[in-house]
Amino acid sequence: MTYEAQNNQEVKKISVELTLNEALALTGVRFPQNHQLEVDAMHKIKRSLEDQIIRDASRRTVQ
Questions:
Q1: pTM for the complete prediction?
Q2: pLDDT tens digits, one per residue of 41-54
């Protein structure tokens, strides 16, 4: 999936709910017994980005 951000003054934000351990895993803290924490956190972020991109695209299509 490719997405080109519009070059305007508006800064878009997303919110992603992560567990404390997921957030720590994304900062580089290693959990040798549970590598899945980092994987799950990345999936949550990617899903949130895709949802936002789809919402933005559908708004442009409707307008």
A1: 0.69
A2: 999 999 999 998 88
